[in-house]
Amino acid sequence: MKHTDIYDILNGKVGLGQTVTVCGWVRTFRDSATVAFLEVADGTSFSRLQAVVDKNAVALDSECAKNGASVCIKGEIVKAYKGNGVELNAREVTLLGKCPPEYPIQKKRTTLEYLRGIPHLRLRTNTFTAVFRVRSVAAQAIHRYFHENRYYYMNTPIITASDCEGAGEMFRVTTQPYDAKAGSEEEYYKNDFFGRKAGLSVSGQLEGEVAATAFSKIYTFGPSFRAENSNTTRHLSEFWHIEPEVAFAELPDIMEIAEDMIKYVIRAVLEECPEEMNFFDSFMEKGLKEKLLNVVNSKFGVIDYTEAVEILKKADVKFQYRVEWGSDIQTEHEKYLTDVVFKRPVFVINYPKEIKSFYMKQNPDGKTVAATDLLVPGIGEIIGCSEREADLDKLLAAMRARKMDESAYKQYLDLRVFGSVPHSGFGLGFERFVMYVTGMENIRDVTLFPRSVNNIM
Question: 263 in the Ramachandran plot: left (φ > 0), alpha (ψ -120 to 50) or beta?
């Protein structure tokens, strides 16, 4: 049906005195003997439009006055009785869809935990309309950043025969019945759809490197899947992944790109979502906007892994996890470095090679790799980044040390045979980034239908 978006009305694209038709859902309703007030939202803006109904002139179905009902309202745009905005003088109100009293979105019980149980309805709350509007703007800004900097957008496979991380935490893809009889794993997969073992991709990086050796600068933005048994506020089994790959780039070059991109996208969110960011600043994380402006206006810190370990060892804090060289830096350690030591994002560089992936470039010391994690205040790691190993012999040695199946990586290895070049890339978990810019504390609250251990609602 022909109608006007509430966004256009609230942002002055429709003049006073004009007659419009608005469609949306009733968010609140106030009534008196002669006048009724309906606040209506259609999802096009964070703010709602108030419709004023003269009950002596307009027949109002009682069903239109229920929270959650969908309505169509025709009327005249007038100056709001209070404030500088506008409202709608209703001339006709039509019910589109009833909403029963058991509508689960009620003020008295709409905690975030409760709303996770009704993901199909939670988007109708202020919190989630704001989250997903910011998510959309951030996604557009990421595409815009790479396009403006002449990167080519690549769509890498979701089904793959290789494990990018080499950790084996992949979801299997099969058409075989669950009770298939097979004498060995090889026999089982021989009769499968692809004739070999396949899984959902944990990353598009390996294929991205293929594209970067032809186009120099590429990026991917798509879903990744990890069968990691982590039931935390920071992990999902299905998440969205931004992964640029850049030929002729060493570690300092890709760190500079990562910092520039993060700042670009934060600026876009602050500029394009002022109402949403004010909401998050007021209700989710006090000082959020100031924190983000500090990120945009400051130079990110850089610290060597070895130095970071020494700082953590000397910290006057009782950590749950012991700090020692050769172990991974835990979330509590990451937050100490960002929130206490640097008070800004920081790159931790040159990690021990044993705790990082096989494809990372080995440093001359033989103990570390040219890798970095970008840590941000309040979240911890948000980007994993490295220069890729361009030397075939070193790459093969790393794979053999991990007992990896070289045959599954033949095309990847060929990149080191035919015109190998220094190249680097990073992976940004999109949901973690959205958490960071909105102040949301649980990753399940920034994705439409979260997939995690024992949860596929």
Answer: alpha
* Residue appearing with tokens 């073992």: 197
Q: How big is the chain, counted in residues? A: 457
Nearest CA to 6 out of 44, 39, 51 is that of 44
Virtual torsion, Cα 192, 193, 197, 201, nearest 10 deg: -150
305 backbone dihedrals φ, ψ, rounded to 5°: -50, -45
- Convert the pLDDT of each residue in 246-305 to its tens digit: 999 999 999 999 999 999 999 999 999 999 999 999 999 999 999 999 999 999 999 999
d(CA 210, CA 262): 25
**Predicted structure pTM score:** 0.93
Query: What burial class does residue 151 get, using C-beta atoms within 10 Å of its C-beta: 0-12 exposed, 13-18 middle, 19+ buried?
Result: buried
What is the CA angle 271-274-276, rounded to 5? Answer: 130
Chain segment 165-197, per-residue pLDDT in tens = 655 588 999 988 876 677 788 888 888 899 888
DSSP letter string, 18-82: -EEEEEEEEEEEEE-SSEEEEEEE-SSSSS-EEEEEETTTS---GGGGSTT-EEEEEEEEEE-SS
Q: Could you tell me how many helices (H) and strands (E) the chain has, helices first?
A: 13, 15
Beta bridge partners of 426: 385
CA distances from 260 to 299, 327, 350, 370, 443 (A): 10, 29, 21, 20, 24
- How many of the other CB atoms lie within 10 Å of CB of 446? 25
Question: How many angstroms separate the CA atoms of 325 and 309, rounded?
Answer: 6
Chain-centroid distance, C-alpha 38: 34
Helix pair 251-272, 126-148: axis angle to 10 deg:
130
